Amino acid sequence: MPASPSALRFPCSRVLLPRTRLAYVHLRNLLTDAKRDRAARISGYVAVSLPDELVTLYLLGGEVVNATVRDRDGARALPISSALEKVPPEPEYGEICFSGADDEQLDAMYATQTLPAEAWPTGFAAQDPSALFPYLMATTFDGVLEIIANDCVNYLFFKNGSVARAFLASAHHGTLIDRVAKLFGREGRVGDLRVARWAPPEPLPIQAAPALVQAYRELASTLVKRLVEQGRDSAPAIAEHARVNLLPTHPVLDGFSFSDRVARDPLAATDELTAGVAAWLRDVMWAAVDHDSMSPEELLRQLTWDRRHMFQSAGLFEQVPWKVM
Predict the structure, then answer these.
(1) Tally of domains within the chain
(2) How far is CA 101 from the centre of its chain?
(3) Is the Cβ–Cβ distance between 320 and 300 less than 8 Å?
(4) Poorest-pLDDT segment among 197-211, 215-229, 263-277, 290-304
(5) pTM (two decimals)
């Protein structure tokens, strides 16, 4: 019987926090320490095992850059803020671990949880090593093989059909060939062995930071509020109309709302998020701002002043037609 998603264990190069009951660990403090403590600024992952799902936070240089969730329905990417919200503030159940990992392994972990696996030929026995490895060699396979043996997840990277690199959570002793062979030596128990393959993974995507998402949401809502205060009662409708019109080219705007619709947390990189917000700002300010009472430059300066450095770092001011002094 396949292991529960929450029971899965991944390879690691260094253990910073062994698997511990979640009730004993303050997750946000742990992540803050990983960002501030020079010794903890490593690449790796924080795996949070909840009763029915596994939440994984990916770190580069101590910063949380992405997240995934794995449950009975499969695995998928998740906005960082949504991933953190899944962890109750006072958990009674669950476990957590914090481990260092090679960037290449993180790429594989993310890809295998967010992209569909490549199909095997009909009737092919991927769990049989005498069939699997000759097939991969004959097809000069390039990519990554995920082998889940019991509750241990393992990754084999292939180049031209041969194993180029391995990250194994089980079988820690012996040569690489011996360690891989042990994954398949299940004494006839094929039900606890799953083998899937993917194309060579892309580098781990970096999500926009939750703080930047929140800053953009507050900027948008404050702009609409300011326009209403200036007598533009139709500002909310103009803002929502602009958002809907821009959705086909900027899907990230689905994470914003200027009506009763509940907005989901956006899942996007910083440049995608900034491009969407900048496009929305341009449309709303051209349509709703009274240029005679206040220039767009002055209004934008007032709205962004407190967080100007954050917005500048994200590239917002470069994508609007008004020069903010």
Answers:
(1) 2
(2) 16
(3) yes
(4) 290-304
(5) 0.90
Residue 202 neighbours by CB under 8 Å, 6+ apart: 107, 111
Provide the pairing of β-strand 14-21 with 44-49. unpaired
Per-chain mean pLDDT for the chain? 90
Q: Please state the rounded mean pLDDT for residues 197-202.
A: 97
* Residues 77 and 67 sit within 8 Å (Cβ to Cβ): yes
- For 211, 216, 217, 265, the CA distances from 241, given in Å and listed in that order, are 26, 18, 16, 20
Rounded Cα gap, residues 264 and 254, in angstroms: 7
Confidence of residue 189 (pLDDT cuts 50, 70, 90): low
Q: How far is it, in rounded angstroms, from Cα 202 to Cα 108?
A: 8
Residues written for the chain: 325
Is residue 133 included in any domain, yes or no?
A: no
Q: Which two tokens stand for residue 185?
A: 């030596």
Question: Where does a domain end: 102, 121, 141?
Answer: 102
299 found inside a domain: yes
Point out the domain boundary residue: 62, 81, 102. 102
pLDDT at 289: 78
